[in-house]
Structure formats: structure tokens, C-alpha cells
Amino acid sequence: MHETPTPVHQHDSRAVPEVGQLLELLEIAWERGRGALGTAPLSAAQTRVMYIVEREPGINASALGRRLSAAAPSVTRLCDRLQAAGFLRRTPRPQDRREMQLELTDTGIAHLNTIRHRREQALQQAMSRMSPDAQHALATGLSALCAAVGEPTRPLGHEETA
């Protein structure tokens, strides 16, 4: 049975400070564990590019620039560095060979999977101190939040393989 979504103005916003606090704690945890949880050898901006290209394979540099709210020269430099690192490839778009499309390489996909795996291990360690009911409530709430933001989540128990 599905509940009809309540209009935004009718929602109780008590969870907003808690979600904000969670985001702050995650930022602190990522910073504290930069060596273990970071995105090295990539910058945060380069990693963000990879997440976008992964979600939108074949995206062109102009569309990527709009997603990043970045100027064309900045996008070009980010892509140049990712390509030099072996994480990104640019190929001519079949419909218009003057336009380049962006795709992750197998190495790039593996790097994102490594980042996710390290972060998931850290989160699993923290969540192991929660009750099963609290874990379920968190998973349900985060899935709903991601859906509201427009980013689908992977179902629990369906891990990506490298």
C-alpha cells in the first residue's frame, strides 16, 4: 500500500536539522579519514565529474559544464586530467563527429567502485552500532530523501561489482 505524498508545506520539518547534522558528520568523517576514505589521486571536482559521467554516459562537455555550473575552460581542464589519468575517454558522437562524448574507462569505473567500497565499509562499521530497526528506518528514510532530491538509490543488498 502506497501513501499519497503530503504537500511540502504540511510536512513536519523536525528531521531537517538532523539531516544537516548528518551531512556535517559525514564531511568530518571523510576529512578525518581522507587517506582511507578520500578520492585520491583525484580532486573532489574530478570525482564529481566522474559521478556525473557515470550517471550520464555519452554526456558532452557543454552539458557537463551546465551540471557543474563551470566554464568551458575549467571543464576541459578537468576532462584533460581525467583522461591523462586513464579514467575518462572522449570519443566522437556517432550522430555528429564534431561533438565529443564522455565515458568512463574501465579504470575509472573501478576507481569509483573502490571509493564507494571504502566509504561503505566505514558506514557499515558505524551502522553496526545501531539496532536493526534503526538501520531499517535509516535506509527507508534515506531512500525517500534521495527520491525527493531526484537521485535514485541502489536497492540494499545489490552491490556493484568491479
Give a written overview of the molecule:
- The protein is mainly alpha-helical.
- The protein has one domain: Arc Repressor Mutant, subunit A, CATH 1.10.10.10.
- The chain is built from seven helices and two strands, in the order αααααββαα.
- It has a two-stranded antiparallel ribbon with strand order 1-2.
- β1 and β2 (96-104) form a beta hairpin.
- Residues 156-162 have low confidence and may be disordered.
Record keyword descriptors for this entry.
two-stranded antiparallel sheet; 7 helices; Arc Repressor Mutant, subunit A; elongated; 162 residues; disordered C terminus; mainly alpha
State the shape. elongated
Q: How many domain units?
A: 1
Binned strand content: 5-15%
Q: Care to count the β-strands?
A: 2
Query: Could you give the order of strands across the largest sheet?
Result: 1-2
Main beta sheet strand tally, sense and closure: 2 strands, antiparallel
What level of helicity do the residues show? 55-70%
Average pLDDT rating: 80
| Rg, Cα atoms, Å | 19 Å
CATH architectural grouping: Orthogonal Bundle
Can you write the helix and strand succession as a string?
HHHHHEEHH
